[in-house]
Amino acid sequence: MSLVDLELNNIFSSITDLAEPSFKEYETTNYIDNYLKKIGFSDYKRYDTGIYGTINLGKKETVAIRADIDALPYDLTRNIYKHLCGHNLHLSALLSTLVLISRNVIKPKVNLRYIFQPAEEIISGANFMIKNGCMKGVKKIYALHVDPEVEFGTIGLKDGPIMAGSKHFKITFNGKGTHAAYPHKGSDLIVASSIFITNVQTIVSRKINPIKSAVISFGKIEGGTAANILPPNLTILGTFRFLDNETRDVIEKSLKLYLKSISKQFDIIANIEISEGTYPVINDANLVKKLKEICKRENINYSTEIPTSMGGEDFCFYSKYAPSLFMRLGIKTKDTFPLHNPNFFIPEGTLENGVRLWKGVLENE
Predict the structure, then answer these.
(1) Is residue 1 part of a domain?
(2) Same domain, 82 and 133
(3) What CA–CA distance (Å, rounded) separates 124 from 25?
(4) pLDDT tens for residues 121-134?
(5) Is the pLDDT of residue 1 over 90?
(6) How far, in whole angstroms, is CA 110 from its chain's centroid?
(7) Per-residue pLDDT averaged across 18-36, rounded?
(8) 91: part of which helix (H) or strand (E)?
(9) What is the CATH number of the domain that holds 323?
């Protein structure tokens, strides 16, 4: 028997249409707020963006489920936003679960802390919610994320690191601008930055243990105004990913060392700013074992043969306060597009799979 009916499908459709940027999820938060009131829930805290609350059933433990609620820019003007990372599904699955609890269709064996978190895409929302008390009294926390690399309807479970730690960096080069015909009279920041970017590729291949995973990528270079002018300043934006602190430290140290070297070579001033970023998302082994048992009991397909993602997730911050489990909800079909692709969509039936998973978790705790 299907758990998802017309009302719950309408929730998903409405949330999909309300796609908003990080920390500007005003209409989305209003929608959640109004729906919680509609189903008779009042024990929650609402912020400009984001809501968390508790269903206190008088049980011994309180378990949290987190759903992110922000969307991504769809066009270069950043005027249009769409749910290109599946947060509409995450939100709808949790809100639908609350609706089914209010109908007494889902009967939790624990108290539930529900967290509708803003600003995951800019890795700021988790700390915002934690700072405002969302983890107080929580004994364990769960989240799911749709995954177009996992077969439709399958739950991806992985012990240990499932998502990488992520840090962004900004590098500025400053020198002496000059005519392109007379490079010896100034500083060629274009060449300097090109050599730096090329040299950095050796950090992963020659500084990191080959059996460990790491990624360093550059996403933006900005400098110059004309073909015949060597610019006086240039900016580079990039990111690196890691699965342990040792790898993180090697990358940070090497970036600074390589930058110092290029500064001396070209007699320029170069600086780097590295963001605080995220930690790797590390799943609790006991929770993974428990979910395997739940999936078997509830006849839910699952797989442990899933790769660790080098994407970052601010869900990592919750694990500092309670054991955590981050699950992959498979949406792979022959027509599936990657996350963040402008053509990305959620296949029909995914909401049912998400709600059924949360039902299994809450009724078997």
Answers:
(1) no
(2) yes
(3) 13
(4) 999 999 999 999 99
(5) no
(6) 27
(7) 98
(8) helix 87-102
(9) 3.40.630.10
